[in-house]
Known about the structure:
The complex is a heterodimer. Chain A is α+β, with helices and mostly antiparallel strands. Chain A has 15 helices and 8 strands. Chain A has helices spanning 47-51, 56-64, 71-86, 92-120, 125-145, 167-190, 193-199, 207-212, 218-221, 229-232, 253-276, 330-335, 338-342, 347-357, 361-365, and strands at residues 6-11, 23-29, 32-39, 154-155, 158-159, 297-305, 308-316, 324-328. A 3-stranded antiparallel β-sheet of chain A has the order 1-2-3. In chain A, strand 6 and strand 7 (308-316) form a beta hairpin. Chain A is globular and about 70 Å long. Chain B is mainly α. Chain B has helices at residues 3-34, 50-59, 71-87, 106-114, 117-127, 131-154, 156-162, 167-172, 184-197, 209-212, 222-247, 262-283, 289-316. In chain B, helix 9 (184-197) packs antiparallel against helix 13 and helix 11 (222-247) crosses helix 12 (262-283). Classes of the chains: A alpha+beta, B mainly alpha. The A-B interface holds A 7, 9, 15-17, 31, 118-125, 128-129, 132, 188, 192, 194-195, 197-198, 346-351 and B 31, 34-37, 131-132, 135, 139, 201-202, 204-205, 208-211, 213, 281-291.
Amino acid sequence: MLRTEEMLLNVGPQHPSTHGVLRLVVRIDGETIVEAEPVIGYLHRGTEKLAEDLNYTQIIPYTDRMDYLSAMTNNQAIVLAVEKLMGLEVPERAEYLRVIVTELNRVASHLVWLGTYLLDLGAMSPFLYAFRDREMILNLFNELCGARLTYNYMRVGGVKWDAPPGWIEKVAEFVRYMKEKLDEYHGLISGNEIFLERTRGIGIYDRETAIRYGLSGANLRVTGVKWDLRKDMPYSIYDRFEFDVPVGETGDLLDKYHCRMREMAESLRIVEQAVESFPESGPVMGKVPRVLRAPEGEVYAAIESPRGELGVHIVSKGKDKPWRLKFRRPSFQNLQILPELLRGQNIANLVAILGGIDIVLGEVDG
Amino acid sequence: MQVSMVLGPVLLMLVVLLFVTYAILFERKVLGWIQNRPGPNRVGPWGLLQTVADVLKLLIKEDVVPRKADASLFKFAPVIAFVPAFAVLAVIPFTDTLKFSDFAVGLLYYMAISSITIIGIMAGSWASNNKYALLGGMRSAAQMISYEIPLVMSVVGIIMTVGSLNLEEIVRAQKDVWFIFPQFVGFIVFLIASVSELNRTPFDLPEAESELVAGYFVEYSGFRFAFFMLAEYVYVFAMASLTTVLFLGGWNAPFGLTFIPPIIWFAVKFVAIVFFLFWLRGTMPRIRVDQLMQFAWKVLLPLAIFNIFLTALFKELPVIGNWY
Lengths: 366, 324
């Protein structure tokens, strides 16, 4: 084969398709990637270190800024860890609200993924469709907590505000609407020959590799591993709802698409059930001391965020602040496999594979 | 020399520039309609002056030439790209009377001249001294040269049928039956190859903004960038005209509806093709570069050759042979 001179190409940190400030140093031979190395840290804010100087309630807004596409699930991770550490009870109504907002947030996050992913593949319309539907979720959140991106909604022992009158009905209406829209997406994308050509059989890895790299979320499930923390390490009230964990077969990009699409449908199913059995009344905050002083000890709590296992490890020395706090950030973990996936690929597959991993740079850098 | 010989081309140039201005607006409106948004609606009524404002803005922008670029080639490249786009219009017969040159080898002329643009794109990308631009330029070269072949091959069937390369004679030959019917395979190949020649979605790899940041024109700004865009939209005009002439019967009226003037018929068919191109952009993702090449060589080219074979075969058959 004719060999050409290798070229060093910097993709990012301001490249439009790196979904944030990710820099990829790519060595290419013609249009074939010889080697790709992710360089991270452009968005590093030292959340974990800052947390050591903040009391437990003050940490919550910092988690909003990590995975800014699903701030609700981030909130839940930290409050769950503190609740576990202090042994606090959460009122039922608050648990229901948490389930509704985190599942809606999962749909919103997957919609952003879907839109930007198709944009990476060169299709613009699905991007605008996805953002149109995400907007409705943001409006619902706006009504609930007054914010559209950084919600700061959950509190240790409950949630900050109760749902305004009529909000639950609006959620039910949205679920009905969104189910229809999912069919619309399938009509637009799933059968498109170019989309299939771009995704089928690309970016494949097996389950051993996925586990070795510590992947989680849809990135792990596409290899056939049925691992979802909502089922396998149940938290909150997820054991009350009926839902399936979608898994893939081949682990290619097409599987990732179908997996996330089905996850959205399952999330809507959960929200639907939660709306039906939503408690009529009751408090949304449990009995929580004014100053949260966690007992000495260590705790690890994890939730299933849209991107995988989001874990919080807290070491407490009995003060109102954590002595040490560590986030297990799924985007950071999932990004590790990228160099292996990119080796030998066409450069046009770079953005597709990167988009398939679904990273949020705020979370990668922490 | 007659006055009309001078005025005619100037008039056509104005028509083409007007088309470019409103094709851009039309495209954005069509995309907006597909994507649930209004599209441009701020400058002028219904956004009618949007493109005018955009062009004005491009005109007054700073003319940036990268320091390490090959300055003279960098400046000359957009010109090489856009001149052929206008030159090919000379042979398009819009109606029986509205035309410029009754050129015996019009079709050949079109194919030959239109491929010069690629030199401008390559030169621009090379002179930019930018890796992304170079990748985009290389892709353009590979793509446009590859698709040139099925494009030319797909019209051979028509040439065989008419026995002429003169575009006017080709239109006259379609008085009863448009070539889209007997040359259906050729039409499909031609349509796909022409979309690729125009560098439009789903074959817009030279300017794949998600991979290559922008593509071959990444270092171009202001009016030099506008020249590239101008060339692209003039080609939309030229290619839609050529498709109308070759396959849709040009100015010929269907069903004997001859009371409607021929230019209207031409315009209707032309706009349908233009709309089709914009519609594609609203719905299609982008194909990958190796798939693009495979598609040209392994699918389109054999199909085009098969079409030639089919035409030759049908020509000899009784009854059907009259169509060919």
